[in-house]
Design goal:
Elements (H helix, E strand, L loop, with lengths): L1 E8 L2 E6 L10 H7 L3 H19 L5 H29 L3 E8 L2 H11 L2 H5 L2
Antiparallel strand pairs: 1-2, 1-3
Helix pairs in contact: 1-2, 2-3
């Protein structure tokens, strides 16, 4: 079972997985854009372009550029779900607490069942 935090706003609930975001590791730009984190997408793109420029101009060797890129990707993937939670907070969502499930949908069903169904979840 995976642990999720549930975030609620009006008639909407979103489950965000706790922990490392493995899907953000290979392509953080696509992960951020897929979660509609536009400012973060631009920041990741700028960081990637800066690393490429540093490598092209010889400021970083191939090994150093590769290590910095891998470190940046791991750091981003470790913080990605927390950044998504922060964005939900800025959009007006309120964290309602943790729940568990095999997937985000299963976790939301379990969360709603604890509140006597979807009608009780928004009461």
């Amino acid at each position: 079972m995976r642990v999720y935090s549930v975030h609620v706003r009006a008639d909407d609930a979103i489950a965000v997985r706790e922990g490392f975001a493995w899907s953000a590791l290979p392509l953080p730009i696509l992960w951020a854009a897929g979660h509609r984190l536009w400012l973060l997408t631009l920041l990741v793109l700028a960081a990637d372009l800066l690393l490429v420029a540093a490598w092209v101009h010889g400021w970083l060797g191939t090994t150093e550029a590769g290590l910095v890129t891998v470190a940046f990707r791991f750091l981003f993937a470790a913080e990605a779900n927390d950044l998504f939670r922060r964005q939900l907070y800025w959009r007006g969502y309120v964290e309602d607490g943790p729940t568990t499930g095999r997937s985000a949908d299963a976790a939301l069903r379990r969360w709603a069942d604890r509140r006597q169904g979807w009608d009780g979840a928004y009461a």
